[in-house]
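#structure-requests
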Amino acid sequence: MVQLRSGEIVARIEPTEGGRLVSLIVGGAERIVPKESALAISPPIYWGCFPMVPWAGRLANGRIPTDDGEVRLEPNLPPSAIHGLGFEKPWTILAQSDMVVTLACELRGRRWPFGGTARQTLRLGATSLDLELEVGEYTRAGPVGLGWHPWFARPRTGDVELRVEARDVLVLDADLIPTGEVRRVTADEDLRSGPALGDRRLDHVYVRTTGRCGRTRLCWPPARYRIRGCGSSRRANASASPRAGPGVAADRSHERNARSTQRAITSGARMSSGFFTEVPDRIGYGGPDPSDPLSYAVYQPDRLVAGKRMADQLRIAVCLWHSFNWPGSDVFGVGTFDRPWLAAGLDARAASEAKLDAAFEFIDKLGVPFFSFHDRDVAPEGLTYTETRANLAASVDRIEGHMARTGARLLWGTANLFGHPRYAAGAATNPDPEVFAYAAAQVKTMLEVTHRLGGSNYVLWGGREGYETLLNTDLAREEAQLARFLALVAEHKHRIGFTGTLLIEPKPQEPTKHQYDYDAATVVGFLERHDLAGEYRLNLEANHATLAGHSFHHEVASAIALGAFGSIDVNRGDYQNGWDTDQFPNSVDELSLALHEILAAGGFTTGGFNFDAKLRRQSVSRIDLFHAHIGGIDTLARALLVAADMVDQRTLAAPRTARYAGWSRELGAAILSGSVTLDDLERHVASGEIDPRPRSGQQELLEGLVNRRIWAVDATGGARDEEASRTGRAGGRRP
């Protein structure tokens, strides 16, 4: 028997008994009906929590229609074949740790002709039990249905409450096979209010769930431990038989998918197909005016834009800090978000695992290619540096597994050198060299992690590399310290063979009064003074540009002109507020100009658009995180189409070329070549050869032309590139 333990949760799995969960203890109480309390032992479908694979529910007389004729399975509960083959089979342990076990079994017997292998993983988190089930390796085309069949124990005192958000049930025949008819629930069958089960006898298939995803919730008062569920298919099936034995049975089938995931989160959480249960599938392209807000109106990863896939032009990343490591707090109030892994008192490592699981579920469902993170986003700081490194190593192992499963890639990694009190006076610029050394060790570790994960870049943001008052600050000394720190990082990059790009992220102030990496021009000047210009490029953030008194367009154009452009943290500030609000981008007009500069310069190399943006504190629904990213990604995609159109039409390139044409002629060429002196130029002016007249800068004309290109793309959706693509639609495969 396998035992998993995390805090107050203990799960026991018996591989020889159909790979089932035979015990789940939460809060000191057993939540699963044990074998000795089962209504019957044969067939073994009345106890524990067992996987239903390769079909779930009843097959009438064991019949399966196929293109090659009808298949007849041997019934295991005559006259039906029920709940698959897995619950009767021994399962083999493939991998096991203190909180995770993976098992597999061959799908054979009962005249099942399709072969195949089933694999399930049970993973304990701080407040959750995740169950993942998949099937593959069929020998011929065949059907598949996946799910779990838990028998939940009723409490010794009190009653359980069951909520099913469905108003209809299927009509069943005498063998409990659906007839094809549907009827409304009776008053006794209506569970939408979550009533106590009492004396009800229910054995139904609930259908036509309300809302996007029909939820079920099982609650054990007074302890209030709950299990809630949401099926990932369009039909959520549930049945309950409180009188059939000492437990409650829930048949949860997912008949469309060859993979199914459920989460049983205790202490007031849910059993579901992941954390974001309201989004069962990957976000897809819904057309230019989709009725479903959980779809893209513009973003199509495989659409060709300026000779590249849209996904390759934008290289979109989800950041882990704002979306998964921030509780929604501010200086005036506590957190408002539903982030259970941030709750106080949890096992730190288990909480980090739950956070990562939710983050990669989100990244996978959003369908974007990259992610980014700080070391402290994914692993807690320990009591010692050694413990901290061990925590990070464990999280990196888990990240690697998620990357392999989802195909997500690391856009960049970084170290948090601003959150801990040791960094109150800065990291590299700290007056204490021991703090400098600690920060260097932290960056070394995280740079190596980024290298290990195949990251495209490594970012350094000097959030506290600045001053709060000049009264205690030696500016020259702190600049020298910062330069040495950056040199050490560059040296280690080459030593370990990291081929990604080192990036510095400018910001003028906040949290310090003045930050040394004020803006793009300041950073480039600093790098050139210290012979580091060849080692670093810039990671530009839109909101940081506006805090510095610049437009985002200005910072992008400046970085490109200075040969230092690298990557983008995409967001926006609030025009009314003077601080870093990190809101999601929503202006095609503003982003189009920045993207025009990027495309005209050849596009990204190792960089991309990282969504360094956070929800508003009142956006407390989990699904709000999807709405925010979908809107921002569509804004980027539309801006990309506008930028590509302007580059193609030479909307700005042609007027710029004409404006500076004189510098390609005799006088301009002579000045730039150094062949004329000030005396020569004064002599030409004095002789009357040179008498310039003002020329129009055509600003208003160009502003109007830019608007026309924006409106043209709005009207056509970028027709030229649309005709050139025809290679796929969003959500079909990972970009």
